[in-house]
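User: You have something folded?
Assistant:
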Amino acid sequence: MTKTADGECGTRHRIGLGKRRPSQRCGPARDGIGPPSGFTMLPWLLMGMGAIANLVRGETPNPWIGAIGVLIFNSLYIALVFRAFDRRARETTTTRLLLLALAAVTFALAGGYGGEWLYFFPLLGLATGAVMRGPRVGVVVLALTVTAGLVAGLRDGWGAISVAYGTLISGMVTAAILALSETVRELRDTRQELARTAVEKERLRFSRDLHDLLGHTLSVIVVKSEAARRLGSRDMDAALAQISDIESVGRQALTEIREAVTGYRRGSFGAELDRARSVLSAAGVEAVVRRSGPPPEPETAVLLGWVVREAVTNAVRHSGATTCEITLTTAAERVELTIADDGIGAPVDTLAETEGTGLRGLAERLAAVGGTLEAGPAGAGFRVRARLPVQDDSPAPAL
């Protein structure tokens, strides 16, 4: 299967460098060989040509009975093999009754006429193998083989061996091939579904990263722009410093967006703390940072950096706080990060944001690695608390 720009198969162009090529079409017949169907079972009816030849040459007693029997047999066989490839039709009582009727006609014709008519037994084996699935098919085909051998032995002596062998092989091989074909089809459908799921996850990752990056960056730019406007009339040097910070934030945002697109963004927790201090200071909020314990593992630090970014952005946007405390505690089994402010709090529906964004997106990220995120009013302000398990990267002891 060829993955296209939206993860689906079709005639869209492949993603890649250089000249674009039309992608291959998905489907069972893309290799030129389609899955088996009822039509693939029809040529086997030629096994009954010997009986028809006997009818034409007048070598069959009561030819009208034989002709009607052949017509009924062929009609039942065709109906069964086409129903066999429709799961809902195959599992109905009607299909079972049709198979029983085919068996009754087969035993009547083969037992009544013998000779070439005995080769209706392998056709009955084909129909049985096509219709039945699961462990029962082996028992049924084996019972059919023994019965066909007994009838053929009474009518044709040692020729019963070829009839019994043909019945057994036709039934078991047909059942095995069709079961394998269904398994391949299910695997192909599963592979396509996994590809679609992977694309959806990548879209969610990108939209979540883009939301967090742009939300934080634009908030920083707004806060520093307001600070530059306030300082412009009385302290031009301080205003220019804020404008320089805006330029630096913009450049950094471009770099982070490129990294988010490629999926290789890695943040530094220390850098996120420095940015948080800068943003809070520009917004007139005192930042208080407390850390205890060893530094977190790199993967944990990335997630904690996202929590700091989102919580500080919300504090600047919504709280109207004067103080924001950031506390990181690293213990033996878990890491806990708390960001609390003394403002008026975030809106009530903060956690009910669109799925995959904001605090809900952070909660999903932390839950994926066994962590938790709590957010809500705390006293006079708003508090965000993240807990993550400590990753055990120590080597296994030598034996």
About this structure: Strands lie at 286-292, 323-330, 334-341, 372-378, 381-389. The CA atoms of residues 1 and 191 lie 9 Å apart. The first helix runs from residue 38 to 41. The chain is about 60% helix and 10% strand.
